[in-house]
What we know:
The structure holds 2 protein chains of 2 kinds. By secondary structure, chain A is an all-alpha fold. In chain A, 78% of the residues lie in helices and 0% in strands. Chain A is globular. The longest helix of chain B has 26 residues. The chains are: A mainly alpha, B mainly alpha. At the A-B interface, helix 2, helix 4, helix 5 and helix 7 of A face helix 1 and helix 3 of B.
Amino acid sequence: MQWITIFKKELLEDWRNFKWVWVPLVFIIICIMDPLSTYYLPQILDAVGGVPEGTVIEGPELGPTEAIMFSLTEVSMLGVLVIVAISMAVIAGERKSGVAELVLVKPVSYFTYISAKWAAKLLLVFTAYLIGMLTSWYYVNLLFGDLSASQFIGLFLFYFIWLIFVVTLTFLYNTVVKIPGLVLTLSLITIMAMSAINQIFSFRMPWFPNSISEHITTMLAEGAIPNDLWGAAGITLGLSVILLVASNFILKTKEMAD
Amino acid sequence: MDVFMMLAPLIIIQFLLMIVAIIALLKTEQTNGPKPMWAAIIILISFIGPILFFIVGRRQY
């Protein structure tokens, strides 16, 4: 019951913060920006002018799978930035202001406190990401050709596993440091470092969390789920669980008072 | 005309985002920095302006 209370409190807070309004809107823009601008590149250049008379501009010939991967690339950059930014203060801010002490002085376990907040944030991220990707899917079907529902669902759910990891990583840093800005910086540095490691060692470590999007590209091209995608997804989910349990222990050892 | 119809949702959503940010700005008691400055940022910088305000503009705690 306590879990539900904290979960509801978190949803209400995000609603009053307008997060439930602006995060989905931002995700729609992030997801449709790239497919749309790629499709209309010739017209846009034409309207802007400055192109010599007689120049023939041909946009690259893109299929629906490439177009939807554009959306995913934007989500992996701007989307991840927004996700980290909305969860940077979720525990750190409450520890700083003393709200966390007020909650935890009651018989509420640390794990209830963290996991309820985690679930509430994930629900927000899931909703925003779902709305954004559905809009993108609609546009891709309209402009680039059919992308089947099974392909879309596969891509959507597998990439959401990576987003779960991003949220959990931010939660871990939330328990380590108290300053939201520092949480943001540390999370982004970690994600960038992981992506660099992934680029260097991608052949050695096919199951590294960052390789999920590459495997999704393979899945869309081949029409079947590669084994490496299952592996990477499993590893990422496992890591998320470990990070969540770890943040529980870190919060326990770090008492509220300095 | 066709292009406009396709791009219209994008423009409408950016506009909505701006409106929500302005409402949030009016309802917030304390902002990080002067309110007129935030109003200018929200209105003049499309897309990035409202996001900046939502993330760093309000004093939440």
